[in-house]
Amino acid sequence: MNIEELRLYCLSKKAVTESFPFDEETLVFKVLDKMFLLTNINNELSMNVKCEEDLAIELRERYAAVLPGYHMNKRYWNTVRIDGSVCDDLLKEWIDKSYKLVVEKMPKKKQSELENL
Q: Which is an annotated GO molecular function term of this record (predicted)?
């Protein structure tokens, strides 16, 4: 997966926007204004994704490319180096889970709004 494939996959999800709220290098993807993925466009390709706490630890132990979330709450966020050691299908699965976790934490009104888009 390269940066453009990552970008297009994220944007294919419902109600997703992209922006650079922190600096000119950190591309952030949000669903209804809530972050679900961050990536740095100028360095080695990686992504920060939200994860269930127990699964986050398990993935770090299983995959060398998965690290505690850089500049994030390390209980719930992982940084994943996209270096070819993890297949694209698995990367997409982790993106999907991050998106879903963020949506599940939204108020019911926002969830309903998303469903009606």
A: DNA binding
Q: Is residue 116, in this structure, part of any structural domain at all?
A: no
Under-50 pLDDT residues of the chain: none
Determine, yes or no, domain membership for 70.
yes
Residue 34 lies in a domain: yes
State residue 42's pLDDT score.
86
What integer pLDDT is reported at residue 104 of this predicted model?
Answer: 95
Q: Give the pLDDT score at 35.
A: 97
For the full predicted model, state whether its pTM sits above 0.70: yes
Biggest alpha carbon distance in the chain?
A: 39
Our count of domains for the chain comes to: 1
For residue 114, tell me if it sits in a domain.
no
